[in-house]
Amino acid sequence: MPDPIEPEAPKFNSPEWLAQRDKVIRQRNVAVALVLVFFVVLFFAITIVKMKH
Amino acid sequence: MEAVQTLPLPADWRDFFALTKPRVMTLVIFTGLCGLLAAPVHVDAVLGFTAILCIAIGAGGAGALNQWLEADIDAGMRRTKGRPLPAGKMAPATARDFGIGLSVASVLIMGLAIGLLAAGILALSIVYYAVIYTIWLKPRTPQNIVIGGAAGAFPPLIGWVAATGDISLMPVLLFTIIFMWTPPHFWALALFVQSDYAKVGIPMLPVVAGEAATRRQILAYAIVLLPISVLPWWIGGAGAVYGACAALFSGIFLALSARVGLRQRTGPDDTMKPEKQLFAWSVIYLFALFGALVVDRWITLLG
Fold first, then answer.
1. Do the Cβ atoms of A9 and B47 come within 8 Å?
2. What is the mean pLDDT of residues B115-129?
3. What per-residue confidence (pLDDT) applies to B77?
């Protein structure tokens, strides 16, 4: 069975390509920030639990 | 010039998530959690959560390393060619660094927050999967699934060790159950995706030894799995609820395996329904069996 035809990717450095690139990078930055915040909270929680013991 | 015009966009967070093999991770998290909850000790919620998180991150790291090492094989298989590396969504070095980063982080956090023994076994499981299984066994021997299955059997052992701090017969039995479950689970899959494995030169048992031998071995492992799955009850490590569930679930597993083991492919139009049913039940089986172990533990605590 042939592969489904993929939508044509925007050309390199075109406004659409740059907009998509910025969107992807922004999403990645948000994801990394959330992970870092999560680990900060987790390390505080682990420290508190360890101090109790 | 054409190459520049089709330069891909940077990999987004979903591609990194896909590298961690989230569906495999679901089973890893579940069995690890069951090992932790079935242990006969009280586990602090934060430390228990951290232990499971480390198991999940370690499994994700091992999965990313596996995809980095097998990018060329994945590109040749219909089931895997859409993964981030063969699809060209990410540079191989990025996947490698991501995998190493996750693996190291998981072992470090496990060692610092939980204990060195749990961290050591986690490190061993990652190396076992990424090096011994992916690099060494998988491309060389049709018994790859049997020995490599140990990699997937580590999570309940790690969960138990994270809770208790030592290894006893019970977590070794949990390890053995998954070890014996893995070959029929994967060989059932390999029977109906056989052509894909053959195309990329992976010596899966159906490709090398033929279907008849594979079917016999599926049945043999299912026969051995039944008594082993009941052993935790037999040695007093689990109660009667678990024992009854294990006998029932493993009985169904054995019946489905017998259907696969005692038949032959009827022809090119064979839909391979018994094999697909066995594969589907094998996934449900593991969730149900380990779920029963935890429920049994809670019943014991309440009673």
1. no
2. 96
3. 86
Compute the distance between CA of residue B155 and CA of residue B28 in angstroms, rounded to an integer: 6
pLDDT at position B3 is 44
Which of A11, A12, A28 lies at the smallest CB-CB distance from B13? A28
ipTM: 0.78
Q: Is B9 on the interface with A (CB under 8 A)?
A: yes
Q: B114 pLDDT exceeds 70? A: yes
- Pair B99, B117 in one domain: yes
Contact predicate B180/B172, CB 8 Å? no
Torsion sign, CA atoms B65, B68, B73, B74: positive
Q: pLDDT tens digit string along B9-56?
A: 788 899 999 999 998 898 899 999 999 999 999 999 999 999 999 999
Give chain A positions within 8 Å (CB) of B47. Answer: 46, 49
> B110 and B91 in one domain?
yes
- The string of pLDDT tens digits covering residues B223-280 is 999 999 999 999 999 999 999 999 999 999 999 999 999 998 888 888 889 999 999 9
Helices within chain B (DSSP H only): 2-5, 13-19, 22-38, 45-69, 71-75, 92-109, 116-127, 144-164, 169-192, 194-199, 205-208, 211-234, 240-261, 273-302
User: Are A20 and B6 in contact (CB < 8 Å)?
Assistant: no
Q: Which of residues 99-118 of B touch A (CB under 8 A)?
A: 113
Single out the residue in B111, B132, B167 at which a domain terminates.
Answer: B167
The Cα B57–Cα B171 span in angstroms is: 21
Is A12 touching B (CB cutoff 8 A)? yes
Our CA-based measurement puts residue B283 at a distance from the nearest CA of chain A, in whole angstroms, of 29
Q: Touching check for A33 and chain B: CB below 8 Å?
A: no
* Of B140, B167, B194, the domain-final residue: B167
